[in-house]
Specification:
heterodimer, A: mainly alpha, three-stranded antiparallel sheet, two-stranded antiparallel sheet, globular, B: eight-stranded mixed sheet, six-stranded antiparallel sheet, 24 strands
């Protein structure tokens, strides 16, 4: 067959196939449910945790590091023996809603059912219908390695009694339908609070500090409430949508754990849903943020400024204005003014890479400075960045840098083994 | 004896993965075809291979050549003329080909020119104006015109975000631009770079002499730029580490900063690194390429079949592969017959160093293509009557760098080392600059490439043999340009100048330019050229050959812009004509 004919045939086959599949979806409501379930999966970012590096999709065994030890994500493919192939729809709903497995044991809340329980029954059923269609993979999941006595799963019964509240999302008639959709996505499938809300000593959300930022694996997930200095107050709704959809906006880029969220989840959601999320986030009330004088010692900032000029200004510019969509704006950037500097320290130590997306294909990357700057130098430059050009945030100490440095060295070693 | 494993076939196979392969990969994947690139070197990217934290390392990149091909792995033999015995080049010197993803597109300066309209008709134009050329010059017309290439020059300039100023916009001469350039349809995508003091002094002197100085076209970003593929480049920081270095700031156009972020995401594109192509395979008729044979990093041999094979390696490597694959008739300098290896050419350069008494030039504030040039003495922009040569070159004051190991101009009479040399470096570092001349080289009967009869490479293949020297036309041309440069230098009112003219035989030892051209030239007939105007092999119609090896002779400009324009022109024809009806296009 000559090349030309080959392409013509391919085109023909694709268009005929396309015609049939769209026809099938309309004729069979079940297919619509599966498509909706896939969308719930995207909103819930199930793929990220339930797929191990190099493993098959949804087959689990990805190690999830928690302050209490390592948990391995479960196999949610329809494999009968090792996955959810033998589960009923009701059993699946109970696990998503109550954190209760078919064997009546409770799941560890590393699986964010504390958020997923807000999902409607029909969305959970749709998700189940979708997961039934993925390739079944036989993959036995490893047992969690937790500190004593948490390996005793029954303790989770007590935990759920203490911390599991409310059921499915309740529509708030005071707000618009899109606001409600946004709230449903943020609180439910999106499980934004899993990272962006600080946890108590038992790993449950601090209820009074919802979405005010939280520590996560040596990162600090920033504040998402309306504060102008360190929250989303300085972002327009469009900037939030652009960020979630492309991983980039004129102020910053997504990197670290958020990169995965952008790739696997938010960049694949509809613009309407992203607008709904932004609309909801823009209504989260701000907290008291009057104390803005953190560093008054100009001499302390002098060292930081010198390091900044030599090492950082080439990309971020002397005045911290960065380069739109390429190098982060530091001036008046909420991300650099978070209460905890974990993300900044990690960025300087090991570097960060902006997530490439179809809309923003360049993975602009900041290189590692761990070999080039010592703890005191990194502390000085970050203190300068957090307290210049109108920024205000608590200073960074050398011991904070030291502890992140050793945590990262430890993490790297454990990955290597 | 190792066995060869045959792999599943692909639609398009690109040999090498620098500029031309990246452009073709991007263009041809748009048709839905499966495109595979085989690159002999490693994967390279900005943040991992030349991050800002270590990119400015002269030992690593300049002296130890971290981005270049290593002569222990790949080299050629050299001689000045057919009466000598060629010897292997054991150190890189005169030119610096790369290895690895991005090719020399990583470590170029970013000097991005268009050739003059008359350059493409070098024989007919000059013979019409000045009479018959001496028989020893095998100069040929290109069989493609500037006007035909204009849209493709434009496409590359917009891909790269070239900083510059038009001199001839749709036939209207623009003040401050190059008035001699061919007509361009639109302005450069970015304004010129901010000029430093040295080039400004050159501009002033040139103007006083009645010449036409202009800001050089630069692939260094004068501002942040998003190219038509949606790839963003950042503004240049003028750090002065361009040529011989990768740019850590995403500010110099390269395959990595303009195409790869988009191309590497495509599911119908595949790149295999450490895949060194040994030869192009042909079917029993010898008229059709069936794929290539390549060796991986473990020394295993693979046969990669493909419907369409495109050679995208460096100029002389493409020629080497053609000779090793027995495609096309090798050139014979005695009879002048044969085409593969014919018309190898280069660049002839000289310089005039300028030393000031009371001016601080801060040469370390530089960029690869930051400079002011004049084109008054390039190509046929001036009357050559009585000069006894044709062609020419540009004269420019580039402020590419003030790198401490590499760049320290010292006046005439300074010792080469010792306390006096050190004193002279200290005294002159901040207050000196250099005017360079960049002359074209005519094709000459005895300048050519063939297989060496004695030496073999690490794979046991005969090495490529380069036979090259400058001839009378180049020497006269270079002397003329050097004199003009000295006049401008003196008009800059310096304390003194130092003239570094070009004399003696061509040497492969000192660095001159990585502008090796010819060997698989384009033309209008299989008797006089290796490829047709679409860079398609006359002998094997499903084989195309990219690169400066297609230049019938070399003009007085850096070659990248023209290499890119020819590539985009070929890509267009492959997409719109060849794929619809594979076979000879001309």
């Amino acid at each position: 067959m000559n090349d030309h004919l080959k392409y013509l045939m391919c085109g023909l086959i694709i268009s005929v196939f396309g015609f049939f599949t769209s026809g099938i979806a309309q004729a069979y409501p079940r297919n619509e449910e599966i498509a909706r379930g896939r969308y719930v999966m995207l909103a819930g970012d199930c793929l990220a945790c339930h797929t191990n590096d190099g493993g098959k999709e949804f087959s689990g065994n990805r190690p999830i590091e928690t302050p209490f030890g390592t948990i391995y994500s479960s196999n949610i493919t329809p494999d009968i023996e090792t996955g959810i192939g033998a589960w009923s729809e009701e059993q699946f709903y109970r696990s998503m809603h109550d954190g209760k497995r078919p064997d009546h044991q409770y799941l560890y809340p590393a699986m964010p059912y504390t958020y997923y329980r807000q999902l409607s029954r029909s969305d959970v059923n749709a998700l189940f219908a979708y997961l039934k269609t993925v390739e079944p993979v036989h993959n036995e999941v490893k047992s969690p390695q937790l500190i004593w006595p948490l390996g005793w799963r029954r303790l989770m019964t007590l935990w759920t009694k203490m911390f599991l509240n409310k059921g499915e999302y309740q529509y708030d008639a005071q707000h618009s339908a899109s606001w409600n959709r946004g709230a449903y996505l943020v609180k439910g499938a999106g499980h934004c609070g899993a990272c962006h809300t600080e946890k108590n000593f038992l790993g449950a959300d601090k209820r009074t500090q919802r979405l005010q930022g939280g520590e996560f694996q040596n990162w600090f997930a920033p504040m998402l409430i309306e504060n102008s200095r360190n929250g989303l107050g300085g972002w327009t709704q469009d900037e939030i949508v652009e960020f979630l959809s492309t991983g980039r906006n004129s102020k910053t880029a997504a990197y670290g754990p958020m990169a995965e969220v952008i790739t696997d989840s938010t960049s694949q959601l509809s613009v309407d849903d992203l607008n709904a999320i932004a609309e909801y986030l823009k209504t989260l009330p701000m907290t008291n943020d009057n104390d803005r004088k953190f560093v008054s010692n100009n001499a302390a900032l002098q060292t930081g400024q010198e390091i900044f000029s030599a090492q950082c200004a080439g990309c971020h510019q002397e005045n911290g204005e960065g380069v739109s969509h390429a190098f982060a704006l530091l001036q008046d950037n909420a991300n650099v003014q978070q209460s905890k500097p974990d993300t900044l320290i990690q960025a300087v130590l090991v570097g960060v890479r902006a997530v490439p997306t179809a809309a923003q294909p360049v993975g602009f990357a900041m290189p590692a400075f761990d070999w080039k700057l010592n703890d005191a130098q990194i502390a000085a430059v970050l203190t300068y960045v957090r307290n210049s050009w109108g920024n205000a945030a608590p200073p960074v100490t050398a011991s904070q840098v030291r502890s992140t440095r050793s945590a990262l060295v430890y993490a790297r070693q454990s990955y290597n083994h | 004896m190792s066995t060869v494993t045959k792999l599943p076939s692909v639609d398009v196979l690109l040999v090498g993965f620098g500029w031309t392969a990246a452009m073709l990969g991007q263009e041809l994947t748009e048709t839905g075809l499966k495109v595979l690139a085989l690159e002999r070197g490693a994967w390279r990217d900005t943040s991992t291979d030349f991050a800002v934290t270590f990119a400015q390392d002269e030992l690593r990149y300049y002296w130890r050549g971290a981005l270049y091909e290593q002569p222990s792995q790949s080299t050629l033999t050299f001689r000045n003329n057919p009466n000598q015995t060629a010897l292997p080049m054991r150190h890189l010197g005169s030119f610096l080909p790369a290895t690895g993803v991005g090719g020399a597109g990583i470590h170029w300066n970013g000097q991005c020119w268009r050739f003059l309209p008359s350059d493409f008709v070098a024989r007919s134009h000059n013979e019409q104006r000045y009479g018959r050329l001496a028989a020893e010059y095998s100069v040929q017309d290109w069989d493609i015109s500037y006007e035909e290439l204009e849209p493709y020059y434009d496409k590359f300039e917009y891909l790269c975000g070239i900083s510059g100023q038009a001199g001839n916009l749709q036939g209207r001469i623009q003040k401050g631009g190059n008035p001699f350039e061919g007509t361009r349809q639109r302005e450069y995508p970015n304004p010129p770079l901010d000029m430093t003091y040295g080039p400004e002094l050159f501009r002033g002197a040139a103007e006083r002499l009645g010449l036409h100085p202009f800001a050089c076209p630069a692939a260094n970003m004068s501002r942040a730029y998003v190219n038509p593929l949606g790839v963003e480049l950042a503004p240049c920081t003028y750090c002065g580490f361009c040529e011989k270095y990768g740019c850590g700031n995403y500010s110099k156009s390269s395959p990595q900063t303009t195409i790869l972020p988009v191309l590497m995401r495509k599911s119908n594109f595949e790149l295999r690194t450490h895949a060194n192509v040994m030869k192009v395979l042909k079917d029993s008729t010898g008229k059709r390429a069936t794929g290539v044979l390549y060796v991986d990093a473990q020394g295993r041999e693979w046969e990669q079949p493909a419907d369409l094979v495109i050679l995208c390696a460096y100029a002389q490597h493409n020629v080497h592969l053609l000779l090793l694959s027995d495609i096309g008739k090798p050139y014979d300098p005695v009879s002048g017959k044969g085409v593969i290896g014919k018309n190898y050419a280069y660049q002839i350069v000289s310089s005039v160093d300028v030393f000031f008494k009371d001016k601080i030039l801060n040469p370390f504030v530089g960029a690869g293509a930051l400079g002011v040039a004049i084109d008054d003495f390039n190509g046929d922009n001036f009357d050559h009557k009585g000069l006894n040569f044709i062609g020419g070159g540009y004269i420019a004051l580039w402020n590419t760098n003030g790198r401490p190991i590499e760049t320290h101009l010292v006046p005439e009479g300074t010792p080469k080392w010792g306390a006096k040399w050190k004193r002279a470096v200290i005294d002159n570092y901040l207050s000196s600059c250099s005017i360079s001349t960049h002359g074209g080289v005519l094709a000459h009967r005895e300048n050519y490439l063939d297989l060496d009869p004695t030496y073999t490479d690490v794979y046991g293949r005969p090495m490529l043999r380069m036979t090259f020297d400058f001839h009378d036309n180049e020497r006269r041309l270079s002397n003329y340009l050097t004199d003009r440069a000295a006049e401008i230098g003196r008009a800059m009112q310096p304390r003194e100048i130092k003239i570094n003219g070009r004399d003696g035989a061509y040497s492969i030892i000192p660095y001159q330019t990585t502008h090796n051209t010819g060997g698989a030239i384009m033309g209008n007939h299989p008797e006089n050229s290796a490829v047709n105007r679409y860079l398609q092999s006359w002998d094997v119609s499903n084989l195309f050959v990219m690169g400066a090896c297609a230049f019938p002779q070399n003009a007085g400009y850096n070659p990248t812009g023209t290499v890119a324009a020819l590539t985009y022109h070929a890509a267009d024809v492959i997409k719109n004509r060849y794929l619809k009806r594979p076979g000879p296009l001309a």
